[in-house]
Each structure stands twice: as C-alpha cells, then as structure tokens.
Amino acid sequence: MLSEVFLGAFLQVLFDRLAPRELISLVFRESVKKKLEKWRQTLLAIQMVLKDAEEKQLTDADVKQWLEAIRDLAYDLEDLFDDFAIEAMQRKWKAEPESGSPASMVRSLVPTRFTPSAVKFNLKMKFEIEKISKRLKEITEQKDRLGLKDGGMSVKIWKRPSSTSVPYGPVIGRDEDRKKIIELILNDEQTDDANFHVISIVGMAGVGKTTLARLVYNDEEVNHFNPRAWICVSDDFDVMMVTKALLESVTSQPCHLKELNEVQVKLASELEGKKFLLVLDDLWNENYDLWEALLPPFRAGAAGSRIMVTTRNVSVGKVMGAVQSYNLDFISDNDCWAIFVQHSLMNENVGRPGNSGLIHEKILERCRGLPLAARTLGGLFRGKELDEWEDIMNSRLWSSSNMGSDIFPILRLSYHHLPHHLKRCFAYCSLFPRDYEFEEKQLILLWMAEGLIYQAEGDKPMEDLGGEYFRDLLSRSFFQQSSSNKSRFVMHDLISDLAQWVAGISYFRLETKLEGNERSKVSSKARHLSFVGSRYDGAKKFEAISEFKHLRTFLPLMAPYVGYSYLSYLIINQLLPKLQNLRVLSLSGYRIVYLPETIGDLKHLRYLDLSRTQLRSLPASISTLYNLQTLLLENCSSLKFLPPDFGKLFNLRHLNIFGSNLLEGMPLSIGNLTSLQTLSNFVVGKADSFCVIRELGPLVHLRGTLCISKLENVTKAQEARDSYLYGKQDLNEVVMEWSSNLNESQDEETQLEVLNMLQPNVKLKELTVKCYGGTKFPTWIGDPSFSNLVLLRFENCENCNSLPPVGQLPFLKDLLIKGMAGVKSVGREFYGESCSRPFQSLETLHFEDMPRWENWIPLGVNEAFACLRKLSIIRCHNLVRKLPDHLPSLKKLVIHGCWNLVVSVSNLPMLCVLVIEGCKRVECESSVGFGSPYSMVFSKISEFGHVTAGLMHGVSKVEYLKIVDSEKLTTLWEKIPKGLHRLKFLRELSIEDCPTLVSFPASGFPSMLKVIQIKSCSGLKSLLPEGTLQSRENACLERLCVVRCDSLKSIARGQLPTTLKRLEISHCMNLQCVLDEGEGSSSSSVMHDEDINNRSKTHLQYLDIKSCQSLTTLTSSGKLPATLTHLLLRDCPKLMYLSSTGKLPAALQYLEIQSISKLQKIAERLQQNTSLECIKIWNCHGLKSLPEDLHNLSKLRQFQIFWCQSFSSFPAAGLPSNLRVLGIKNCKNLKALPNGMRNLTSLQKLDISNRLDSLPSPQEGLPTNLIELNMNDLKFYKPMFEWGLQQLTSLIKLSIHGECLDVDSFPGERENGVMMLLPNSLSILCISYFKNLECLSPKGFQNLTSLNQLKIYNCLKLTSLPKEGLPPSLTQLEIRNCPLLSQHCNNEKGQEWSKIAHIPCVLIDNKFIHETVTTDSFTTQLNR
C-alpha cells in the first residue's frame, strides 16, 4: 500500500521544482513555462483528493492503480527536470570562456544558432513534455470518473485512549526503570527557582513509555502528590483542549467554560499551593509558544511539583525545559517471552506445542525487545489451538502490517508526524535489510544523490541539512545507535517494516521473494534497488530487474571485511549502461579491474562508490558526469591515476581516496573542484605530470579530514603557503606526510619551510605529522592558540632532535610520539618554557621506537600530567631516568622493551593495569600511593628493588597476573608464591619461563582462581609439594594448561580441585601419566565409573593431551573420569590404550585421536556410550578394528577414520543410522565400505578417498539424502552412476578425484549408450585427475541449472568446455593445471573465452582472469 502522505510529500518537492529557476528558464521557451504552470495547478488539484483516494484504494482497485500512476508520473517529472538541468550544465561547460564573469557564462547558454545537439535535445524534450501533458490529462480525467473528492490531507489518525489503568497482569521487565523514574520525581534538589520540573520519558513507538508512566503514576511512593492528573495529548496540542482536560482530570467534573483565560484561572485555583503530579501522555508538540501558553496555571502550585511527559521525540522534552530526559530502552529477550506468554496463554491451562523452541526463537526475533510487539503477537496466538500455531508462523500474517490492530497504527502515527522532507528520507531507508548497520554520512550522501535534501538558495550546505534530517529521525526513535559500533545505526525490525510499507513498490530489495505476477509489477514500477552482495553475483541473480528501465538506485550492501566479491561483467557492460536514470551506483567490494567508457553515459549519476575494487584507472568518460556529487575510491589498492579532465566534475563534493596508496598524484585541474567538501587525501605528485599543492587553495569548503601525502614533491615553500590551509576552518583533522623511503639528499631546510607554511587553522582538532625530515619543528606546532587540538601524532620524524612544546596546548588529550630516532632528552622544551601547568588535559601519552632517548627530565611541579590516564613506553632501549614522580590519575602503565629503564610504581594511586615487559629495575619505595591494579604483567625484568608492603598490597587485589622469565625476579617470586593463597581476587594466573618454579605453595590456590597457565617452566615437578593435597574449601579452579614443562612426570589427582573442568597438557616430554592416583587419592580423587556416588565427585569434562612423547597411560588406575565429555589425544606415540577397562566414560561426547601409533583399539565395547556425537581417528597405524557395537551409538553424528594403515574392516553391523558425516581416507588395508550404506538415511556428507577391493552392489547404492559427496578412487567413478547418483535430489556438492584412464568425456556414457547424468540439485562440482579427459559433455551439463561453482584440476588433456556453454547459474570457475584448457581460456582470442566471459569469478592457475584482459577485447568477445 502506498501511503497518501508519502505521495503528498513527493508532490510537494515537485511543486518546488516547478518554480522556474534561472538556468532552466534559459532553456525553456515561454510556451513551456506556461505549460509548467498548468502542470503545477493540475498537481495541486490532484493533491487535494489524495485523502479520499487513500481511503478508497483499500476497496477499489482502480483507485489503487490511479495512485500508482501518479507516483510514476512524479518520478518521470523529476527525471525530466534533471534532463533539463544536465543540458544546462553541459552547455555551460562547453561555452567558450570569453569572459570570466558569471553573467557571460549564463548568456553563453542561449544558443545563437541551432547546433545539431541543441536541435536533437529540443525535439526530444518536446516529445517528453507532450507525453507528460497527455498523462496528466488522463490522470485528471480518471480522477473525475472515479469520483474522488477534495478532502485535503488525511486527518484520520489513530489516537491513544486516555487511561491511567495498568494493563492486565503484572508489568514485566520495567521494575528498574520504574525505580529510576520515581527517584527522579522524588529528587528535591533544586537547580532553579521553578516550583515544578518536567521529566520526559523518551523512546520509540511500542517500547512501553505509557505503561511505565502508568506504573509510576499508580505507585504508592507518589501518592503524596495531590492533586494528580493524567491526560493523553497525542498529536492535537490545542492549548484550550489540553487545559480543559487537565482541569476535568483534577476536579473529576466536566468543564463548560468557553474562554481559555477562565479555564486557566480555574485550574490555577485548583493547583494553588498544592504539590501536584501531572502526566501528559503521548506528546508531540515542538512549538515553544504553545507550551508557554499552557504554563501559567502550573506556576500556582507548590514547590516540588512534577510534570511527567511521554514522547517519541527528544526535542519535545527540550522545548518543555525537561530537567531530565529518560531514554527508555528495549527489554530483554526473557522479558519479551514472558509478555508473549502472558498474553497468549494467560491463566488458561493450555499446554505448549512441541515446537516451542522454534516459536520462542521466531517470537524473539520478531519482537527485538519491543513490549508492544510481544503483547500483539501474544494476542494473535491467544485462543488458537496448538496445531494452528505453526500455520500462523508460516502465514502472511507474520508481516508486521497485519499482526494486529495495535502496533501498526502506532507506528504509522510516528510516520504521520514527520515533516514532508523527512517522509521520503525515511522511505529511502527501506532499502536497508533488517539489522543492517549504516553510518550517518553514508545515508546523508545517498539522500543527497537522490535529491531528497532540497537546498534553497543561500541555505545551509546539503550535508548540514542532511545532518539535521538524520538527527531528527534519530531523536524521533526511527534510528537507534548500534550496540556493537557507536558510529553506526540500525532500525528496529518493526521500523524497517514500516519503511517498506510507506515506500511501496518503488523501493525493491532484490532478496525479497515475490510471488506470481507481483514480480512483473515490480519490474515495471521499481525505481530504487538494493541487494545484499554475495561472494559471487552472476547475471542470473539480476534477471528480475532486467526490465527496470527507470532504476535510480543500484545499491549492493556488502558485509564488512569479507574479502573480495565477484560480479558478472555482463552486469557492468550490458545492464548498467541501460539504466540511464541512475543517481546512485555502487560496485564497492567487487573485484573489478576496469569500467567501460559507457559509464559516462549515466548523466544523472550523483553517487558512485568504487571502493575496495581493483581498478587500475578510471575511464576518461567519468569526467563528463557533471552531476556527480560523491565519488568513493577508498582502498582501491591498484589505482594509480585519476582521469586528466577530472576538474570538469564541478559539482563533486566528496572524493574519498583513503587507502588508495598507489596514486602517484592529483590531476592538474583538481583546483577547479571548488564544491569539494571531502578530500581524504591530496597526493602531491611530481611536477608537470600532476598538480602542485597550491591547487588546494581554491578548495575553501573542505571539511572533516585531509591527508596531504608525498610532501617531498613540494620544492617551493610558497606553493605550500598558497594551499591556504590556515583559512580552511572546517577541517577537523589534518595529516601531513612525507614518504618513508626518502634519501639523505632531501633538503631539511626546505622541509622545515614547507611545514611552516602548512600551518592549519587554529580550530583544528587533530594533527598528524609523518616522516618529516627537518631537524626541528616550526613554532606554530605547540602554540597555545591551537586551543581546540585534542589529538597530536608525530611518527618517524627521525631527524628531529627535540620535541615541540606541546605541553602548552590546553585541551590536548591524546599524544603519540613514535620513531623519533634523533631525540635524546625530553625536558622543559617539551612542556613549554613558560607553561606552569603543562599537559593539563592530557589523558593518553604514548612513546614508541625512540632508540636514542636517554633522559626524561621532570618539570619539578606536580601540576604536570594531572589528568594522564594511560602511559605507554615501547622499545625505548636507552631510556635511563625514572618516569615522572606524580601521576595521580594514571590507570594504565605499559613498559615494553626499555632495558635500561628503572620503573617506579610509587605515587600511582589510581593504577588499574600494570604491564612491564622488559626493563632494568622495578621499584616501589613507598607503601603509600600505589593503587590496586586488577591486571599485572611482569616480564623480563633484570631485578626488583625493595619489595615494599605497598607493592604487595597492590598485588593482593589483582585479578589477572602474568609472570614471565622470573629467574631474575627472585625477590618478587619469593614473596608471591608463598603468599599466593592470599591473592583473594585472583582469577587468572599465567607463568612462563620460570625455571625455579618446582611447585605451588602447600597452602594451595587462591579461592577465586579459575584459570592457570604454565609454560616453559623446566623445574616444575608437581602442582603442590609432594604429599600435599588440595583443600576443597573455596577452590574454584576450572582450567589448567601446562605447556613445555619437561620435569613434570604426572599430576597427583589429590592436588586437583574437584571444580576443575578443563585440563590441557602439551609438549611435556617426560610426562608418563596424566593423573596419578598416588597417596591421598581416596579423599580427593578423580572419580571412575564405579565411584559415581562417591562424595568427592570431579567435574573434569575436557582433557586435551598433545605431543607428550613419554606418555604411556592417561591415569595410573587405567580408568578415565566418568564426567569426561571431550577427549583429545595427539602425537603420543607410546600410549597403548585409552582405558585399561576397555570402556569409555558414559558422558563422553567428543573423541579425537591423532598419531597414537601403538593404539590398537579405542574400546572393547561402547554399549554405555550413548552420548558420543563425534569420533575422529587420524594416523593411528596400529588401529586394527572398531568396537562391534559401534552401530548402537544413537547420537553419533560424525565419524572419520583417516590414514590408519592397519585398519581392515568395519563392524559387521555397520554404522549408526543417525550418522550425518562419514569420512574414510587412505586406510590401505581396508577392503570394503561399511555394510548397509543405503540405510544411512541421515547421512549428509560422505567422503571416501580409499582404494577398495570390494564395492557395494547397485542395490545397496548410496545413501539417499546426501548433500555432499567426495569420491577419490578410480573404481568409484562408473559404479556411482549405477548406484543412482542422479536420484540424489539433495546433493549440492560433488567432488570426483578420478585417475580413470578410459574416460575422455565427462560425464560419459554407460556401456549401453545411456548418458551418465548428474543430479539437477548440484551447486558445486569438482573434477580432478582425469588423465585422458578431453572435453566436458554438453548433455551432462545442460540440466545443472543450480550449478554455482565448477572446479577442474589436473586434467592435462582437457581442451574444451561444453559446446553450448556452461550453465548460466555458474558464478565461479576455477581451472588449475589444465594447460590446454587454460590456453584456450586465458587468451581473449581463445575459442573458449566467450563461454566464460560472463562468469563473475574465473581463476586460472590461481590468477583472476579479467586482470589480463583489455577493455575493448573483452567487450568484443562478450558480444559474440
């Protein structure tokens, strides 16, 4: 359904454009102007009947069709106006610039004679104007025939009923919110003289604002307010009506007064001297004057009175002067489910359906924390029989617009209250799929490109207007900030559904499934297209849009950081050139190496995103896209040049070339782009070939971030001055960068002069200087006039021998100094000679790679670094002097690779994280002033000074402690182990390279310790001293990991807490027994099967042993822990058995055995192992057989046996029927497959790479439900067709490793001449090692309509692909080590080229084929 208000907003924009503007008026003749005015009057008449049409379209298909015709006409009118604007711009550009004045430029648009192009354009436009006039006439006549009446705009809006009653049942999930609101109401702290304060509850529709307000209103804690009143205001903020409603609520009497003054006097008398609580529910008013008119009666109340309002718009509370706006967030999934149950089942004794898990998941997915959605869905399910629930879940009622009578009218009300200019902006967001995270700037640039941001003459820049639009929608709860990335935003699912509803069929997401003739309707109507880009996007994906002639938006939405995707060049060369009305085109993320010159024919294009492509250059025709506003070339790693006529893009406002690091320079005419606001990088090229830096000068509107790179190519300081950086006050961040590979011949003095002339505006917030070669910095760096500077970076300025006085910058928060190899001392010059309180705002200070730095001379006053929170000093090898003595706010200290530094940790009262990895000495001279870090790392410290009580007190509260190379940390190590049990807050302990560690103290482990990791501690012999048992009191150790501890021979069971769940031991070369039951095992042993009722049960679940060459047994008793669920054993060559009893723990779920060469069997029997889900056995040469009752493992889902040379046969009873994955590889003595293979009806993946003497009969055949089949045996090729390969209707992936000498065609023919057919369902096909294969059979491939990937390896004689070509569904073709076929495909003149040119991804010997093809030859071959 197309909303009348959306169409009305669209028409309003057209009215603005129908007012003739200066340039277009020169193109139009006077007669055309009159026609435009007639159009305007006609559209106004149409707009007046939209309300009536909107209501009638629900029952009258002709009216619905009439509305669709208006929408199409509106789009066509916009296209027509844009055609005129483009023609005007082209004539402006082509006019001879005899004079530089604007007047002469305008006059040049009036042709003095008829040129062929002008005549052609005029004839075309005349034809289009007549068509529009005819359509308008038909629409007007049809309006009259349909009997549509003038009704203005729609006023039939849902309004919330006014009630203070709390809904049925307890309010779920809002108890904390209730407490916080009541706390705000009862807070008596006065910040002004007002007798009342306003508290607003803000949130999106359906989040429960009114319910929460009712809960608070009826709470006993606010009963002392008297009087209390509640009214629902909704969208109609009439001061008289609101005042009268409040009076009636206060007095509980009807009011018959007629004058506002009388009503307000009466209300004031009722409130006078009383502490009142008033609730204005569902408020929309943003008019301050109306609020002021409502206020007078409230001023009569007593101090402490409160007015509580609920609203969807933050701005409403601001207008009312709310002292507090409470943003109401979504509720939890558990609370959502509880609300659903409350309203679906209530108190009825109804059982839950068997698929309640699926229902639970779908309900929560639909609600997304919105209480009203949960309530509405609960009402939808209420009263239904259990067998009806699944029908509802699968029906079209599951769309939110049909979910019930409550939620969608509320959402529509939010949309109704949007201003006209926001309605279309919001509708555009329907292109985003659910959960899609978008950035503010990204969306604004798209709105601009689509003409949704109308900029009146002399108004703010479009970007600023767009920012206001965005923030308005955000404040109205249409957008929410992403929980995972604060710079991104999302829409709630129901808001996303609302956007689709109001957008109608003009907006189309390609992944949307259409039924029946709906596809053809969308094909002729859609103007905006988006789709989720996949790894391979072939031409078949876009069949549904092949007739979208008027498409304006082609917007793939790529998942972040997934690598390259591939797009068929048919789309680029054939589909896109047809879309002449495109405003937005994105090919971002596709592995595209060139664009055709036809891109220049897309004259309407305003937004072009080619980021993350492999373009080497841009077509020259891009310079003719005069409408282009945004060009994104971010991370185009192969791009070297921009077109020479780039300066013709005089409407370009945003150019992002960040990460396109091969660009050698900017085109000569870049200074003509005076509309530019974003220029991510200005690459200074070498003279003559590229423009010089002075061309930055005219770009006065630059804002945001500007990086100027390759500054070594600036040879004259005056050119740098002419860049006029100091006048660009909208720049927030500037990066100045010289190349890192400069030779010593570079003039240091010139670099100083250049940097001096590049002084930016004092409003700058962030500055980075990289690879600067001067010996000192200019005086403007560190000047206090740069009061807005908050971030400063100096990187690899190796010749500078001193730091600039950046301590004088009053609001500097982050400072990074890296690679300053010439600096030897940091002192007064760093702080500022006359600065008494240096670095007064600095929070983060980072030094890195300063090899000559020796001294850090303190200022001598405590005011320095007063706010410093994080200090890092990395690889400053010669730094000797101590750190500053007084860092009162420091929370994190990181020292790494500073071998001569003495680190004092005194006077750090706020320290939370301490990381010292490589220094000369650590001191803590005082017990006062050392904080309580929760994380500490000590590594490679030459010595500890006197270990004071202060240091030990700090360690006592640590939660994470890591000690590395403690042989030299004698003092500390003597203190910590003996006092280890006193570290009451310690949760994780990591010890590495500590050869003196023999055991932990007899006192045991700290009570909160959960994880211990011990690595390369060669002296470790036991966890606790011999004969000591671990106390069970308060122990909660869950994970123990021991690596490369060669003195360890076993672990006494009595020394392991019963809480231990995970034990990992790796590369302990002398370990003989993992768990030794020795002395004391009776009181604290790990339990066996027989001891399951013993009072000291273990919780050990995960046992992982790897590369322990001496290991002979897992436990001294030969029995495994009964609670074990995961057992992983790898590379233990002396281990002969898993359990001496021949039984595995009943709880075992996962068993993985690799390279246990002496193991002959995994168990005698498995009748108790009903929990086993996965068995993997690899490279166990001694294994001969499997337990005979293997088939009884009812939960076994995966079984693999690889490279077991002695294994000869499967049990006679075969494998479990529920098995899903079966792998058999390289077991050379195995003679046959398991019996009953066809009975494995649950098997989905079968991998056989084994030469067998005996094959199953055709009657046994293959399991019928296979999804993936990998065959690697020459004997299997022909038999598997006899087994019914074609009947495997679920098979998606087939891989055949052949070595069949008699096969020259694939798939071939049987002996009776019948073709061997492959399953139609195949999506992935891989064939390899067919030594005599020469061709692929046409008949064998013609039925593979779902084939997406084809891989052909090591077929040396293969010369051709199927004669009729490959299936059109194919999106990936990989050819490897097929020399003859590669030759025919790799050359664009080869005989097979035309068969593969349309495939998005073709890799030949691991090279992307399109990288070797020229544009012209590609197009020629593609059109064969």
From TrEMBL:
ATP-binding is among the record's keywords: yes
GO terms classed as biological process: defense response; response to other organism
Keyword ATP-binding: yes
Coiled coil: none
SMART domains according to UniProt: LRR_TYP (SM00369)
Domain NB-ARC positions: 192-347
Disease resistance N-terminal domain location: 6-95
GO terms assigned for molecular function: ADP binding; ATP binding
Occurrences of domain R13L1/DRL21-like LRR repeat region (ranges): 693-820
InterPro entries for the chain: Apaf_helical, Leu-rich_rpt_typical-subtyp, LRR_dom_sf, LRR_R13L1-DRL21, NB-ARC, P-loop_NTPase, RX-like_CC, Rx_N
Limits of the Disease resistance protein winged helix domain: 431-499
Signal sequence region: none
Keywords: ATP-binding, Leucine-rich repeat, Nucleotide-binding, Plant defense, Repeat
Protein name per the record: Disease resistance RPP13-like protein 1
Organism from which the protein derives: Castanea mollissima
